[in-house]
Amino acid sequence: MVAPGGRASKVPAQLNGVVPGGVESRLAWVREKPTISRYLAATRQLRLLTPPDWPRVRVAVLRNFTVEPIEAYTCVKGASAGIAVDVQIGGYDTAMRDSLITDSWLFDYQPDVVIIALSLENLAPTFFNRFLTLSAAQATEAAQQTASIIRQIVSAIRERTTATIAIHNFALPRHSLEGLAETRSMTSLTSRIRSLNQELVALASGMGNVFIVDFERMAERTPIDARNWLVARAPFTPLILEELSDVYARILRARAGRSRKVLVLDCDDTLWGGIIGEDHIGGIRLGEAYPGSAYVGLQEAALNLSKRGVLLALCSANNEADVDEVFDHHPSMVLRKSDISARRVNWIDKATNLRAIASDLNLGLDSLVFVDDDPHQCEMVRTLLPTVLVVQLPPEPSEYRAAIESLECFDAVGLTDEDRRRVELYRNEQAREVARQSASSLDEYYRSLEMTAEVGRIDEISATRIAQLTQKTNQFNLTTRRHTAEELVHLAGQPGVEILSIRVRDRFGDAGLVGVAILVPGAHADEAEIDTFLLSCRVLGRGVEDVLLYATAIQGKAMGYRCLRGTYVTTARNQAVATFYPDHGFSRHVEDDTSWSLVLGEADLAVPGWFATITLPSNMKIGAVTA
């Protein structure tokens, strides 16, 4: 996977609303004058100001040149996203040793993210600096050795950690060694480095936790510091440090589950040029000719985001019939009503409408990105809803598409089937809501859904989605422990561990994999701890949690456990499940007032009668633990 290293966005900086005042003032001070010295000073201060409830991510850097300033930049960019970042930089040119020796600091550190930043000029100096002195066979061998070194490093890290890995690809030479002949050569230094970079992409493409940091593209736009490279092997200019740390921050946000989920669009002078209520469908600017083509471009960018799993919503001060006419009848509309998962088209203020959109989608306001051309509307939303990311479009419509495509807040560690089907899933949910409103009782409504539940054990196919749920689910999540797919696969192979998921279908469609329960050995031999118990907000209130808990208890008993222990870890978002365990017959644990226990076999866990079928896995672990 390639994490492109784009220039700093033209969108004004806006912080996640969880950033407290002291941290915010330090970050604003850095933005005011983003010098290396300010980054260094801010990093020291942030260590004292960081709230204890922020997710903490440990980053390790393996390098063969001077990268030290990147620590400060990464810590500051992480704080901007509400993430506490610890950075450990390995020794100069010790990447192979650090990743291969048994007692390496790298594995003692237990990093969440490993950055592999290697300079080709240091890694293969003859290949890079004296390329024309090599025969074709020697050049091929040097390139293969370079790729082999990186494969060995990645393999060793993956074997002993579950870290997300970010590999820098290689910068191209800034000048052609062979003059004009190089432009048509498949064996030039430029061509060979491009091929080497493609090998890195091929390496990453088969691994869900490996990304490519596109340093090739960065270096094309921004020259390195040639003098500092020669003096101290320190090539990074402040601009490169900014770009690199922006890419790192995207990986950190995705890893910590801090990515945004919804793009909320204004209509007039955003989806089309002009005011539909005044200009009517024939007078708005939308089509092949500029400036209408600029609005087509913005819609295309939004549609592409929706195919990555980003939900689209409308928030517009307009008559709904006028907006519907454009969507239904304008020949140049790219977006259709079926692409929109929520909409508020009325004359109510946009802050209120954004709250309603978040409620409709059962998401927090910190999941929303609001796009509008009006500076007054943007400022109002920034003031009233500080957790919403506001994107004020630039004055020139030709820059609209880039404003959307440059957004770096929607990244996910992996793309699942549920992501690709997200618009469909929310459309089905809206159909369920219509059915609920027409039913005479909740019981009648639930039975009319004809729900089926299928509980399964983790496998390579479901691991990515299960990890994604642990990273993104905040409301119905008893412990909010975050896991990667690699961590989960490794954990599932341990004695006494079981990882279950639940998939729900009904007459409106497949809701997908929506719940996770993780059992691990507890403090006592006959006790299983519920490490994780969570449910997607899409299926709240339908009894799915009861089915998952029932299956968890059955599995725990089959493995030889006599008792389940569940813990509730309170957060700002999960208070609705504070009484989940006592509500289901668990007793407060005598040793810990945040935990509850259930003796298996003494209390019957019930499942709702409205499920048409409930399927439990046939390959559950039987007798996996000893009493």
Description:
The chain is an alpha/beta fold and 627 residues long. It has three domains: 21-256, SGNH hydrolase (Rossmann fold, 3-Layer(aba) Sandwich); 262-405, Rossmann fold, CATH 3.40.50; 442-615, Gcn5-related N-acetyltransferase (GNAT) (Aminopeptidase). Helix content is 42%, strand content 18%. The chain has 25 helices and 19 strands. The strands form three sheets. It has an eight-stranded mixed sheet, sandwiched between helices. A six-stranded parallel sheet has the order 1-6-5-4-2-3, sandwiched between helices. A hairpin with a 2-residue loop joins strand 13 (498-506) and strand 14. Helix 3 (70-80) crosses helix 12 (238-256). The radius of gyration is 27 Å and the shape is globular.
Uncertain parts:
1-18, 622-627
**Average pLDDT rating:** 90
Radius of gyration: 27 Å
Q: How would you classify the helix and strand content by structural class?
A: alpha/beta
Note the overall shape. globular
Q: How many domains would you count in the coordinates?
A: 3
The portion of residues forming beta strands comes to: 15-25%
**Briefly, what CATH class of the largest domain?**
Alpha Beta
Number of strands: 19
- At CATH level 3, the topology of the largest domain is Rossmann fold
Name the CATH superfamily assignment of the largest domain. SGNH hydrolase
* Distance between the ends: 45 Å
- Based on the coordinates given, report the CATH architecture of the largest domain: 3-Layer(aba) Sandwich
* Helix count, DSSP H or I runs of 4 or more residues: 25
